[in-house]
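Q: For a teaching session next week I want to show students how multiple molecules come together into a single three-dimensional assembly. I've collected the sequence lines for a complex. Could you give me the predicted structure tokens for the whole thing so I can convert them for display?
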Amino acid sequence: MSSKPTGTSGVEHHHAHHFRSAGHEFDTAKLGMWVFMVQEILFFSALFVAFFIFRQKYYVDFHEASLELDWIMGAVNTVILIVSSFTVARAISSAQKGNTEGILENLIYTLLCSGGFLVVKSIEYSSKVHHGLFPFEIFGLKWNVEAFAEHPQARLFFILYFLMTGLHALHVVVGAGLFVWLYRRAKRGEFGPAYYTPLEMTGLYWHFVDLVWIYLFPLLYLVG
Amino acid sequence: MEHSSPAGTTYLNYPKGLWSWVVTLDHKRIGIMYLFSVLFFFFVGGVAAILMRMELFKPELVYGSPGQIFKDAGAYNRALTYHGVIMVFLVIIPMIPAAIGNFVLPLQLGAKDVAFPRMNLASYYLYLTGAVLAVLTMFLGGVDTGWTFYTPYSVDRATNATLMLTAAFIIGFSSIFTGLNFIATIHKLRAPGQSWDRLPLFVWSIYATSIIQVLATPVLGLTLGLVAFERIVGVGIFNPAMGGDPILFQHFFWFYSHPAVYIMILPAMGVINDVIPVFSRKPIFGYKAMAAAIFGIALVSFVVWGHHMFVSGQTSLAGFIFSLITMFVAIPTGVKVFSWVATLYKGSIHFDAPMLYAFGFLFVFVIGGLTGVVLATMALDIHLHDTYYVVAHFHYVMVGGTLFAFMAGLHYWFPKMFGKLYNEAAAKLSCFLIFIGFNLTFMPQFIAGQLGMPRRYFNYKPEFTIYNEISTIGSFCVGLGFFMALCYLVYALFYGKKANSNPWRSLTLEWEAASPPPLENFRTDPVVTHGPYDYVGEKV
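A: Of course. Below is the structure for the complete assembly, covering every listed component.
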């Protein structure tokens, strides 16, 4: 049954056969995305729980370890991500207005932001590795036992730090990949007021990635 | 996929060709692919079970002696692990939602497909990838952690566990995708007129299951990922030498794996909900209470995980609370059992094969459920923990509950899936064999466990011999029953009589489509004008 367009805006758009209209398809995709994000929250939650438990258990060690983190770097990254959330929202509103140039421009800003975030993050990571604060035994790297001789559980802090920020950074990389994909589709003129589902869904995902960082930053950098 | 299928074709023969199955987005084909995969792994896991039972019939580990099954205790442990991993992750969890649910759910909603067909196919291939990896470990020397992957053993000693953990991680995401898809489908793709109180209870139970899948499985995924990481780069979160805590693993693991028990049983209850009214020709008793009970169980399932850890160094206060909450599960479950019985009361009962399995379910599931309350009693559990009593209990729920309901569902929807009727007499005989065999296998295990026979060992003290002998004979009986089922179902596939669109005179929407349904399910879009079980006065 090939579908006839009944997009909310009246502009024709093709939708999959099992939906009644493009608007119906959009709503369904959005619900699916929200459920997916619930899944994402639970995925991160185990690490947060582990962090709370061990922070409680080894309070002093975690405090000492967290002083090693550079809160300015963390703050810069927080600003970068918030700006990128803004530019994504602008890309979506450009699509709603049918402004393809605006979509492309804002996607570029967003990509720059995600790149910037990853650059700052890798500067932080490499300084930790340099100081022997990389807690895993891989690529011939070793945890420097002397660095925290008095507070041995600091290593557990860094284990959790790398796992949590690493998993988050992985989400940033995936997001950046999605933005490249969106850019190519936008360039072909696929998005407009009648159809911008992928933009909206990626936007939701990106706000989630932003939000996770907004929890990670105070937890790891400031509270300690 | 964009065009309706030519008249006279079914989803089985249009579009044509093997490739069209490999890349299919049709929920019915994906369901059937799940079904055959699940049945294959059921066979593999079943063989492991029979081998263990043979070993326990005459525990003999001296090489070359007659009757010897396993060459050493390690081989027994590996068989135990594969039986557990395969049956839990590859069979019982996807058995009803992913296999039967994928086929039936959109039909019951009057939809053309699930909300996200591509994600549905991806979920199947994730399942398959995980399954292949899990089987691959068998040929690399095997894994002997048990399906629970408890640390520190799974980190320090076990061989090949990394690959197995990866497999379970991947299968977990397949399960999440299925759940996500069903939630969106149920919310958005219901036919006109199908209000929430006209949903078949099978849909309600799949809905509750999907919520658990989406909420619990990610935690398992991350946890197993951490164990795999711990093996590779020494993460240390579960390693006491690095300040970590192996008990934390148990908490994370059971935070998923207890709700997972309800991922297994809720869809089973859904099947029984649909079968009993059809074969009693009566509306279901207490529709709203039934739907609420499903959600009650799903809700409570998230806060009972500590009952797996009564002897793991949990405080007695925590143990007390978990014990109490666990008993609450019995309340909504009781509501369901009583409502099923009340539905039967004064019904015009038809003893067809699906109904026989439903009766079997009622009988054994109640035993499984009540022994669950026994085990929830903390003081008693300390005596019964890690004995065969626990083994018998969860087999009564998993096999007696889920597997019986799966068989009920398979026989109920078989004519819809393949458009063929099976031999009713053979089906009854096989159901009878499975029922008797099942009780023979697991009833003695309650006694042996209560007398103190520990689980997971390849050997036992002589006083347990009689229970183990009966148990093994029972397991052969079960095996024979399933073999029979395989024979007459395969026969029916090829030579069975043609089924009409509604052989059971059921009122749910899937029976309004042709048997087997065409590509997009309904030739005319259905409109719902009555409830799913309005059998008053045989109004079919």
